[in-house]
Amino acid sequence: MNSFSIVIPLYNKVNYFQQCLESVLCQTHQDFEIIVINDGSTDGSENILEKFEDSRIKLISQDNQGASSARNAGIAIAKYEWIALLDADDYWYPNHLEELQNTKVKCPKASVICTNYEIVLEKTYLKQASFAVDIQSKPDYVEDYFEASLIDPLAWTSALAFTTPIFKEVGGFDTQIKSGQDIDLIVRFGLQAKMAFNPKVTMRYHRITENNLSDRTGLRDKLAYINKHTAEEKRNASLKKYMDINRFSLGIQAKMKGDKALFQQLRQDIDVSSLNFKQRMLFSASGFMLRKLKSIQRKLVQKNIYKSPFK
């Protein structure tokens, strides 16, 4: 019960992967295996493994099939019950697995656990995750995942761990979804699993890296995870509001890129009461104004000032 199987999907992350692996090997909690699924990298990312001599590291190679397929493949061969996910361009602080283990001990009924995290928006700006509910000072069970995740998601992929039974129960990663597969999985966890959250920051997420999946897929690809749970939204008001926030985010991107049809489709599906005042104002703004505001936001971030429509 103290062991973790760490699953890392790898696709063209040569500038980040070594630091990622080093962050795992430097953990204060050392009871783990590392499963790297090389998903058809073409930049030699997998060769970085030659620098490490550790019997706990396993490399599996496959043709490029996407992160969902890679993660499913890694989890399928994991020898431990608890799975910890890590993306190859993210970074764990040395306390990550220790705090996951502490969360398991303090919240023994949880089958899905996560820790707090930081987001690198620009090279000079590190954003702290913000949540829509008050966070306890110690690990605790999550009452309503969707309500808590209206600003930043309470669970981030590389800060997440879960048991193999709950992963199988919810159906694993959906390989038909090209973008937002992790959000889709966590939505199913939020509906079916007992979740727990640890407020200690234990990992760093890079918003912008080379070969970022969210940047390589089209906006319409994201409709798959957004529209997948519409039936359940009718029965779950918190999920409806959470998914409307996701629709808002995609709608803003669609308007900025001139996809009027996609924007109209998303606007029709949104309950406007799900949005705060700033979000409603932005939703009614022109594409030109949104692009201008986005440019201003980036300039402010460069000055270590971050303004968000989500709070």
UniProtKB/TrEMBL annotation:
Gene Ontology molecular functions: transferase activity
Keywords: Transferase
Domain Glycosyltransferase 2-like: from-to ranges: 5-167
Name the UniProt record assigns to this protein: Glycosyltransferase family 2 protein
Annotated Pfam families: Glycos_transf_2 (PF00535)
Keyword Transferase assigned: yes
SUPFAM superfamilies attached to this UniProt entry: Nucleotide-diphospho-sugar transferases
